[in-house]
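Fold this sequence, please.
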Amino acid sequence: MKLSVSGRATATAVVAAATLLATGSIAGAAPAPEPVAIAAAPDIPVADVKAHLTQLQSIATANGGNRAHGRTGYRASLDYAKAKLDAAGFTTTIQQFTASSRVGYNLIADWPGGDTNQVVMAGSHLDSVTSGAGINDNGTGSAAVLETALTVARTGYHPTKHLRFAWWGAEELGLVGSRYYVNNLSPTNRARISGYLNFDMIGSPNPGYFVYDDDPTIEQTFKTYFAGIGVATEIETEGDGRSDHAPFKSAGVPVGGLFTGASRTKTAAQVTKWGGTAGQAFDRCYHSSCDTTANVNDTALNRNADALAYAVWTLSQ
């Protein structure tokens, strides 16, 4: 960002049509239709998400300790994700732009099929700051979006709507990559995006569970998931307008997302709700060299990755 769940089965169970038309009581009434099954969102194994984080850490270590815009570590991170997506059958596009006299890149991955007049997008920024590897900010969001996309392919999911995934460059310089993408969409193509979901820091070590209060349908989708696993949420305020959903929102696209906190401190009331340490930042390593693979809360990452998949499946059917 610029700047063992026992209830999972409940939250991701198959949802069937709950209302049946009355039959037999009114002359000439049509037979009741069969309930339409909704595909259940799969579990996203946290070990698979963490495997991507390990790769991002290795890339940073091999490239000056960071994955920042215009640096070799960023391009290596993008190439890692692109290779995974290409092998899984996605149609990938690299979009090039310039920021601070350095070339930057966005990675866009489209899953074949679905109504291209109704596009559900999920995205995250892939760049780090120059001071560290950026594993929570924002390797966590990037890895969870990547693993969700790969799960779409692995499960052979074919939704009604078209699915698109994105990894943005130069977010840390002021949302440059996502703004470039949105500004270069035609009005028609902007209107085709029925929702953009943003994931920027979802594994903070002293985590909170924050949901964007932007589009009400997207917001409720996330709240429904967390309610199903018995986790309370709060409205996200710390990063409001400071991540890659902002250009989409400004262009009139419905947006939503998840966040586990950055430099603000956790209150005693939030500790009662979520555990952790009061008076300590949600992420003490925010924008620092200690933002490594050791700076991730596995439980928060697991829950948010599953919430991500739940939203993608729910909103695309």
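The longest strand covers residues 115-125. The beta strands are 15-16, 37-38, 91-99, 102-111, 115-125, 161-168, 193-199, 210-211, 234-235, 255-259.
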